[in-house]
Design a protein that fits this description.
Blueprint: E1 36-37, H1 49-57, H2 71-81, E2 88-91, H3 93-105, E3 111-115, H4 121-128, E4 132-136, H5 145-151, E5 156-162, H6 174-183, E6 189-193, H7 209-214, E7 218-223, E8 236-239, H8 242-251, H9 259-269, H10 272-295, E9 299-301, E10 307-311, H11 320-329, E11 332-333, E12 335-336, E13 345-349, H12 353-368
Helix pairs in contact: 1-9, 2-9, 3-4, 3-8, 5-6, 10-12
The structure holds pyridoxal-5'-phosphate.
Pyridoxal-5'-phosphate binds near residues 93 and 231.
Pathway: Amino-acid biosynthesis; L-histidine biosynthesis; L-histidine from 5-phospho-alpha-D-ribose 1-diphosphate: step 7/9
GO molecular function: histidinol-phosphate transaminase activity; pyridoxal phosphate binding
Subunit structure: Homodimer.
């Protein structure tokens, strides 16, 4: 402290330095690109060639500001999903959408609930906005609606639900999502993060459009980072009540979506055949890979996403960390999930057939050795 009582250097806001750094999926092995990167749930199919062409066409006009309202992109999202564009907001990845929601609704000390193995971005976004993250226990690595409802207090302002969840791959049926919504006070915002919804085939699943369309406190978020294969461009969106979208738009950075991302997003939406191919591939290789790993004696959490959570035995030499190290010597990178409280599991993205077969083969060798 100086004589004026002020600190000698700038001080980040109270509590900010307590926020853990987000650890992304590993992208390199000893400084080189892995043969099979299965650590971030990226699409093994890359992006649609139409999206790539649209991206390239932007190179002639890099001096121009993009459309700040992402008008065409919102219109095309609206066409594809049957939604009114006025009720859509685009973000630099759904990460930005989640942050904007927190900054819109949380005052210092307000509580926001998420589930035990919920997506790691939630507590970061909540704390960045001054909120207090509250964890609701899960049952069998699956969201427990009763636990969330039991965690609601007078201070609760938001609930985050990834459905399906990352890193577990589990989901809850729409009846449970409705029960959750019905049990929440009307002033609490329910965020339905449907980042993997395109992959889900279950009849009792819904991404959340109907609830977001018909209530005043439900927002559904979506991303172009997964099945659309556009993670590098940072593009996501949400759909919700007009009053919520209007409020968010007041603090949204005015040009938050680059022109290239808008153009590529529009083209990608118009190439739904490309998306279907990725989904069909996942429907084949998700169960195939899960069954093959179970046949090796590993436990795999049933997943409806484009990734699986693999649990390793407690036996010495067979831990998740050791499996990870072994796989890396073979050029395969999966995701460690110790940060999620799952120290003896690895999350594996469903990659190409070749990638899945490679991991299955290497893990067979690892478990034998
Ligand atoms: C990958 C993922 C997202 C997408 O994040 P972006 O910022 O759009 O790349 C959102 N939610 C969950 C649960 C995810 O796993």
């Amino acid at each position: 402290m100086s004589s004026s009582g002020q600190p000698q250097r700038p001080q980040p806001r109270e509590g900010l330095l307590d926020i853990p750094l987000y650890v992304p999926g590993k992208a390199e092995i000893d400084g080189a690109a892995p043969i099979h990167k299965l650590s971030s749930n990226e699409s093994p199919f890359g992006a649609s060639s139409m999206a790539m062409d649209a991206f390239r066409q932007m190179t002639g006009n890099l001096e121009l500001y993009p459309d700040g309202g992402s008008v065409v992109l919102r219109e095309v999202i609206g066409e594809v999903h049957g939604l009114h564009p006025d009720r859509i907001l685009c973000g630099a990845g759904s990460d930005e959408v989640l942050s904007l929601l927190c900054y819109t609704f949380l005052e210092r000390g307000d509580e926001a609930i998420y589930s035990q193995y919920g997506f790691a971005v939630y507590p970061i976004a909540i704390q960045a906005a001054g909120g207090v993250p509250v964890v609701a226990k899960e049952q069998d690595l699956t969201t427990d609606v009763d636990a969330i409802l039991a965690a609601v207090t007078d201070k609760t302002k938001m609930v985050f639900l990834a459905n399906p969840n990352n890193p577990t791959g589990t989901y809850i049926p729409v009846s449970e999502v409705r029960r959750l919504h019905a049990g929440l006070p009307k002033h609490v915002v329910l965020v339905l993060d449907a980042a993997y919804s395109e992959y889900v085939a279950e009849n009792d699943y819904e991404a959340g459009i109907e609830l977001a369309a018909t209530t005043e406190n439900v927002v559904m978020s979506r991303t172009f980072s997964k099945v659309y294969g556009l993670a590098a461009l940072r593009l996501g969106w949400c759909y919700g009540p007009q009053a919520i979208i209007d409020a968010m738009n007041r603090i949204r950075p005015p040009f938050n979506i680059s022109g290239a991302a808008q153009a590529a997003g529009v083209a990608a939406l118009r190439d739904q055949d490309f998306i279907r191919k990725a989904v069909v591939h996942n429907r084949e290789w998700l169960p195939k890979t899960s069954a093959a790993l179970e046949a090796l004696g590993l436990k795999v959490t049933p997943s409806v996403g484009n990734f699986i959570l693999i649990h390793f035995p407690d036996a010495p030499g067979k831990s998740a960390a050791e499996a990870d190290a072994f796989l890396q010597t073979k050029g395969c990178v999966l995701r460690q999930v110790g940060g999620y409280g799952l120290p003896n599991a690895l999350r594996m993205t469903i990659g190409t057939a070749e990638a899945c077969e490679a991991v299955i083969g290497h893990l067979a060798e690892f478990l034998k050795g």
